[in-house]
Amino acid sequence: MTLLLDGTPSIAADLPTAKIIERKDNCGVGAVEFAVATFDAKAAGFNGALQYSWSVDAGGTIVGLSTSSSLKVILQPGPHVLNLTITDADGASACASLSVTPLTVGQALLLEFICRLKSYLHINWFFNPLWDPLRDRVLQPITRADLVRMIHISEATTSLLKQVLAALPREREEGKE
After folding, report:
1. Which of 82, 105, 126, 149 is 20 to 30 Å from 174 by CA-CA measure?
2. What is the pLDDT of residue 173?
3. b/e per residue, 42-67, with b = 16+ CB within 10 A?
4. Reduced to 3 states, what is the DSSP secondary structure of residue 120?
5. What confidence tens digit (pLDDT) does each residue in 140-177 have?
6. Buried b (16+ CB within 10 A) or exposed e, 80-92
């Protein structure tokens, strides 16, 4: 039993809780329209084996089991609500709901391109002055290999930027290019 600061018992702190967590990739992209999205259950305060029961509104289709600790679902465009009920061996239960609006395919691609571009530039272009001090250009002039590497990095960056630009919607105002 948990006690509050005034010494009285806290019943709410001992109740089981359930939470739904949307799985996202390393670029932060989670649910995408018409693609399989995964959601995980997080349980706390339960005793013994757990039983899971998932449901999704009419715009979603459950793929596989709806009785495991994770749910795979395909979502149509627009907002959706996922529901989860967790019950333990003693009969205690907790419910959770999550509202989610899947990204369009275009939004997901744009986020992936921007993420790849940031990662590429961070790894290949910028330096950390604490571990890569400025070179003495008299004693260590820029070599042909350095210039070739800079060209390759610039070409790869240009290619990624062109992909991002192609994924962006066209500006409707004139002069905004």
Report:
1. 105
2. 44
3. ebeebeeebebebebeebbeeeeeee
4. helix
5. 666 788 778 878 888 888 887 787 777 777 654 445 55
6. bebebebbbeeee
Cα–Cα distance, 70 to 133 (Å, whole number): 48
* Residues near 88 by beta carbon (within 8 Å), at least 6 away in sequence: 16, 46, 47, 48, 49, 50, 51
Alpha-carbon span 167 to 169, nearest angstrom:
7
Q: What is the pLDDT of residues 111-135, one digit of tens each?
A: 888 787 777 766 655 554 544 555 5
Fold category of 2-102 in CATH: Immunoglobulin-like (2.60.40)
Sequence spans of domains, the chain: 2-102, 106-167
- Cα gap 36→164, rounded to integer Å: 24
Render pLDDT for 12-30 as a digit per residue (tens, 0 to 9): 557 899 999 999 998 889 9
Tokens of 70: 């994770």
On whether the CB atoms of residues 168 and 114 are closer than 8 A, the answer is no
Higher pLDDT, 58 or 160: 58
